[in-house]
């Protein structure tokens, strides 16, 4: 039997369209979209107290967040949806059409003793494993999500690239990573980003109280396993769900997509999404970049940067650039000079990432001195440049260290978009 589509991959407009078309006799378009908004809030704001104010003001429903445990527990979501959000017969129809189970399941969670990052191994329905990393920092809680199981791009310094591509994730499996981690925080009574640093949360408060004020994930970065633009439709749908103000409500500038620069997907992404874009550079020289990143042979840096320059001129958009520093490969002053020249005229921010070493690569991490010298050179040339000392290195959760050992191909679930709408 074909598995049900997961509700977690459905955007709000598509959910409204489904309500309108499935319940045609009783729902007009405006009512269907209002109910979709209420359902969305119920799905994604289960542990957020601000939900009450934001939803009651705009939608005819009175769901109380404490009564909506979709993010908070492993219970089936549909069972808990109150009837003032959606009538009984519509609810039954919804339950027959969609699965409300979280599409990925936390199999393992490893917490870094050094910085509090938590690396999760998530299992998909077909028993593949993807990795997701929760990164607590002062004032924010960032989730690094995967878009594929493995990756086809084969960057030479990256563990994931050595796996090859097993399959791309669906939108619900991407969104599900956030849902599963949110539930994990509730179940582990994590009361603040800082509390993640502690193994046991020492507090006099009851678990029930802590669960009511579990922190929200504030930032999402698409820097886990896979090349996001190689899975464009699922990526765009997942971002739509992350930034929907009736649901999770993340600001687009708190969502960052990291890419090696696939064309023409890059142009489509820039046209359709307001999320931040971070281009992985790793060398300012074409031949050298091709050696480190095989994709450069097909999509040369000059062509990728031309797209960014054109888009920046039209929109004033600012871009991030990621540069993994590899000892004696791309960390010389000449590289810094060439990089600054390459980015001249762009509103650019450069993230310098000293290589995270792993088994099976001859590449080495540079010392801090050349790293900061590289940064100073870029700054002297007028660029904004930061050094990112990756979190989670001790649990193999840092950039380029994510890998799974086993996996098999599985069947796919058709998308609602394909069913209801010919175009995104
Ligand atoms: S760095 Fe990113 S794009 Fe390159 S192989 Fe690794 S996961 Fe894929």
CATH topology term of the largest domain: TIM Barrel
Question: What Rg is obtained from the alpha carbons, in whole angstroms?
Answer: 22 Å
Bound molecules: iron/sulfur cluster
Structural class: alpha/beta
- CATH architecture of the largest domain, please? Alpha-Beta Barrel
Largest sheet: 10 strands, mixed
Please provide a written account of the structure.
There is one protein chain. The protein is α/β, with parallel strands linked by helices and 424 residues long. The protein has two domains: 97 residues, no CATH class; 290 residues, Aldolase class I (TIM Barrel), CATH 3.20.20. Helix content is 34%, strand content 17%. It has 14 helices and 14 strands. Strands 3-4-5-6-9-10-11-12-13-14 form a ten-stranded mixed beta sheet, with helices on one face. Helix 12 runs parallel beside helix 13. It is globular and about 70 Å long. The relative contact order is 0.13. The C terminus is likely disordered. Iron/sulfur cluster (SF4) binds next to helix 5. The site of iron/sulfur cluster (SF4) has 12 residues, from helix 5.
Walk me through the topology.
Elements: E1 5-6, H1 12-22, H2 29-44, H3 51-58, H4 88-97, E2 98-99, E3 105-111, E4 118-123, E5 129-137, E6 140-144, E7 148-150, H5 159-163, E8 165-168, H6 171-187, H7 207-212, E9 219-222, H8 232-243, E10 255-259, H9 265-272, E11 276-280, H10 286-292, H11 301-315, E12 319-325, H12 333-342, E13 348-354, H13 368-380, E14 384-387, H14 416-420
Parallel strand pairs: 1-2, 6-9, 9-10, 10-11, 11-12, 12-13, 13-14
Antiparallel strand pairs: 3-4, 4-5, 5-6, 7-8
Helix pairs in contact: 1-2, 6-8, 12-13
